[in-house]
Amino acid sequence: MSTNTSKIVIVPEPDLFDGTAKNFDHWLMQFEVYFTIHHAKFTDQKVRAITVLSRMKGGSAGLWTKRMIDEKITLSSASWPSWDEFKNLLKATFQDHTAMQKARDKLEYLQQGEKHTIEAFFVLFNTLCNECKLTDDDQCIYLMERTVQRKYIDQIVTMQNRPTVYKDYKDLVLRIARYHKQSDKQLCFERRRTHFFSETPKTDKPHLQPPPTQEKRTGTGITFRGQGKAMDVDAVQQQNHCFNCGKVGHFKHDCPDPPKAKFNARALVLDLLDEEKRELVNQILLDSKENTEQVFESVNI
After folding, report:
1. Which end of the chain has a smaller Cβ tally under 10 Å, C or N?
2. CB-based contact 144:125 (threshold 8 Å)
3. Nearest of 116, 119, 148, 143 to residue 129 by alpha carbon
4. Cβ distance 163 to 169 under 8 Å?
5. What is the DSSP string of 48-115?
6. What does the pLDDT look like over 181-224, one tens digit per residue?
7. Burial of residue 107, with CB atoms counted within 10 A of its CB: 0-12 exposed, 13-18 middle, 19 or more buried
């Protein structure tokens, strides 16, 4: 019993085509792949042509399909054009006839740049050369020297035996570019390794002075200093003078005497007559003079 071990390649149906010229080449390439994979199903030329027409809808492609079916649908397979003839008919109708000039213009202004790898650049370069039907080796080499990074070309133009065939020249540029890329990676690696194994210089940290201690007084009368240590409240209480009675040994909020009424001297003075104010001032001056004389007598001056 033999088993078929061949892999099945699944290719989706080609896209729909509405006659847009810029999409034509890609759309036709899809049919080339589709018919190659399913060759056994599309040996008849009429079946191939009708399959292509079934994927042409809308725009100018839809109108062209309607006219083609009206003319050919009733004809036999032998009367339909071959696949190559049908492709040429499609190209003459829908292909962008300015594509070659557009590809040539892109080649004129193409530059590799630092962000494009040499492999990606040659994919684009070769595609544009094919689109503009450029096959001359001298022209391809001339355009390549203008577009590839100069550091690669400078190593070739000084050679005595410069390649004259485009393929050989391209292979040489690829080898030089890949060498540069590998050298850059190696240099980057060496820099990282040197930085990793290098000793970091020791720096003397400046001596920081501790912050000054601050006191914090709580509602319980306990005062904290610096690191939160409580003061000896009893010792403070023994030296404290009460703000209410003036006695030592307790605080104002613990005073056993009734709170004294506040004396408003300003209001009392405002209520005095002018004569009473003058008499009060004279009395204050007289008391002040007597107190001063007593002080001098006490020190025996």
Report:
1. N
2. yes
3. 143
4. yes
5. HHHHHHHTB-SHHHHHHHHHHHHHHTTS-GGGSPPHHHHHHHHHHHHS-TTHHHHHHHHHHH---TTT
6. 888 788 777 777 666 555 555 555 555 666 655 555 555 555 55
7. buried
| Per-residue confidence (pLDDT) for residue 27, from 0 to 100 | 92
Q: Which element (helix H / strand E) includes 216? A: strand 215-217
How far apart (Å, rounded) are the C-alpha atoms in residues 68 and 42? 19
| Residues forming a β-bridge with 248 | 241
* Three state DSSP letters for 236-277: HHHCCECCCCCCECCCHHHCCCCCCCCCCHHHHHHHCCHHHH
Identity of the residue numbered 10: I
What SS3 state is found at 223? strand
Give the separation between CA 45 and CA 40, rounded to whole angstroms. 12
For residue 212 the two structure tokens come to 């000054």
- Taking the C-alpha atoms of residue 82 and residue 49, their distance in angstroms, rounded to an integer, is 9
Say what percent of the chain tops pLDDT 90: 12
The alpha carbon dihedral of 39, 43, 49, 54 has a sign of: negative
Q: Give the closest residue to 79 by CA, choosing from 45, 35, 52.
A: 45
Q: Cβ of 289: how many Cβ atoms within 10 Å?
A: 10
Tens digit of each residue's pLDDT (9 = 90 or more) over 105-114? 888 888 887 7
Say if residues 125 and 140 touch (Cβ distance below 8 Å).
Answer: no
Tell me the C-alpha distance between 169 and 192, whole Å: 35
